[in-house]
Write a structure and sequence with these properties.
By secondary structure, this protein is of the alpha+beta class. The protein folds into two domains: 2-255, Glutamine Phosphoribosylpyrophosphate, subunit 1, domain 1; 271-469, Rossmann fold, CATH 3.40.50. Helices cover 30% and strands 24% of the residues. It contains 19 helices and 24 strands. The strands form six sheets. Strands 4-3-5-2-11-10-12 form a seven-stranded antiparallel β-sheet. The protein has a six-stranded antiparallel β-sheet with strand order 6-7-8-9-13-14. Strands 18-17-21-22-24 form a five-stranded parallel β-sheet, sandwiched between helices. The radius of gyration is 23 Å and the shape is elongated.
């Protein structure tokens, strides 16, 4: 356990300026080219995790597995690799680790043999009681081979004394807490599970006679599958013999999807609550403009690519010029950034460069989707001034991020979150902007299409801004971010 805790602490120190989603999952039933279709689906979900990828298939007699470091397109791009993954049923996973070391054995899907048969598991999310369960399992004699909380789920399923695989899964998920979406492969079925509050996403699609379970609708589009519906919060879907069955073992609760799927995580073309993520983000920019109607500037510039949609909405609503005043280099990889201090010292210039002909002598209104630690914002603002900007005003298309996450999003500790420790004026001074403003919480809900004042509308999991955690973590991790929770007076909706 000490090693596991150290890993979590280290992860926070090396945190990327942007929030990171843990992973993406994909599963398909009864498909002739199941492994190839799964590779395509994972490719569409590449934005959800770039550390590693894996596919598990079943051909009616035997399971096959391939796991690799890096991107899907660099690993599952040859016939000889896909041909090793035999069978018409497959599940796949893209990894971005929020718990556990970046080692090959932590790459999913995981697999286990049980007395009811083999089972493969791909997991998106994070458990808030995995270490407590893990300690108990170890005390009972269990041996863990990874540092991932997903193995805890696998162990609970394998350990269950229930007679059928579905009973074992139900037994396991009643013991876990947090935000999770699971795609599982057994000898007879493809299974999807979504946590009781629906924090992490999971959708159902259909391709001819094949059912698809995946994190986002963009993975359905790439293989030509039709979007049917979301897996409901607390629902287990079982696809067997070309039929989809549903069970709901949990008491009914109101759905609480993660707000950052709307703000940042989901690919722009994925559908959330009936609209594309792009439309939601554009509406966030429009609402931001409504809250800043009297503000004057010469040109609206997005931080690419995260701020593009909000900046378009902002500019269109106020009738201001929209310009790509920053150019992004999409071909910067981690291996290039890391080798030397000289290269690292170039910082954000490796990824972004100011378009001087657009910037010079202009009052710039810089739009981004969020502000986490402020390190990148500080460098971008300086870059714009160095390019000749007369003024730089920063507008953020979401509220201030004041609290860490425990449901599968890689966030810093509370003491590392800029808005948790500084006033608006102090943040503005730190990033070097002329002015700074954030979208209000009520404005965010209105833009996304939810109304906080109407009980008929679902509430989002919005603890990043409010500190209201729908599932309170049980695990204690020393001086890591979870101890910050003990300082908060949080309400539980369990």
């Amino acid at each position: 356990m000490k090693k596991h805790i150290k890993t979590l602490k280290k992860k926070s120190k090396n945190f990327d300026p942007k929030l990171k989603e843990e992973c993406g999952v994909f599963g398909i039933s009864n498909a002739k080219d199941a492994s190839a279709l799964t590779a395509l689906g994972l490719h569409a979900l590449q934005h959800r995790g770039q550390e590693g990828c894996g596919i598990v298939t079943f051909d009616g007699e035997k399971y096959y597995s391939e796991k690799r470091f890096g991107l899907v397109g660099d690993n599952f791009n040859k016939e000889e690799i896909l041909n090793k993954l035999k069978g018409n049923y497959a599940i796949g996973h893209n990894r971005y680790s929020t718990t556990g070391d970046n080692i090959l054995r932590n790459i999913q899907p995981f697999f286990a043999d049980t007395n009811a048969g083999g089972i493969g598991v791909a997991h998106n999310g994070n458990l808030t009681n995995s270490i407590s369960i893990r300690n108990k399992l170890v005390e009972d004699g269990a041996i863990f081979y990874t540092t991932s909380d997903t193995e805890t789920i696998v162990k609970l399923i394998a350990k269950s004394k229930r007679p059928t695989t579905i009973d074992k899964i139900v037994d396991a998920i009643f013991q876990i807490q947090g935000g999770y979406a699971l795609v599982m492969l057994t000898q007879t079925s493809l299974i999807g599970v979504r946590d009781p509050l629906g924090i992490r996403p999971l959708v159902i699609g259909k391709l001819k006679n094949s059912y698809v379970l995946t994190s986002e609708t963009c993975a359905l589009d790439i293989i030509g599958a039709k979007f049917l519906r979301e897996v409901e919060n607390g629902e287990i879907v079982i696809i067997e013999d070309n039929e989809l069955k549903s069970i709901k073992p949990f008491p009914p609760k109101k759905v609480r999807p993660c707000v950052f799927e709307y703000i940042y995580f989901a690919r722009p073309d994925s559908i959330l609550n009936g609209k594309s993520a792009y439309e939601h983000r554009k509406n966030l920019g429009i609402q931001l403009a409504k809250e800043n109607k009297n503000f004057d500037a010469d040109v609206v510039v997005p931080v690419p690519d995260s701020g593009n949609a909000a900046a378009i909405g902002y500019a269109q609503f106020l009738g201001k010029d929209f310009e790509l005043g920053l150019t992004r280099n999409h071909y910067v990889g981690r291996t290039f950034i890391e080798p030397s201090q000289k290269i690292r010292s170039l910082g954000v210039k490796l990824k972004l460069n100011a378009n001087q002909s657009i910037i010079k002598d202009k009052r710039i209104l810089l739009i981004d989707d969020s502000l986490v630690r402020g390190t990148t914002s500080h460098k971008i603002v300086k870059m714009l001034y160095d390019a000749g900007a007369k003024e730089v005003h920063v507008k953020i298309a979401c509220p201030e991020i004041r609290y860490p996450d425990f449901y599968g999003v890689d966030t810093p500790t509370k003491k590392e979150l800029l808005a948790a420790n500084k006033s608006n004026e102090e943040i503005c001074s730190y990033i070097g902007a002329k002015s700074l403003s954030f979208l209000s919480i009520n404005g965010m809900y209105k833009a996304i299409g939810f109304d906080q004042r109407n009980n008929n509308y679902p509430q989002l999991t919005d603890h990043y801004f409010t500190g209201e955690y729908p599932v309170k973590p049980i695990d204690e991790l020393g001086d890591s971010k979870i101890t910050q929770l003990s300082l908060l007076s949080t309400a539980s909706n369990n």
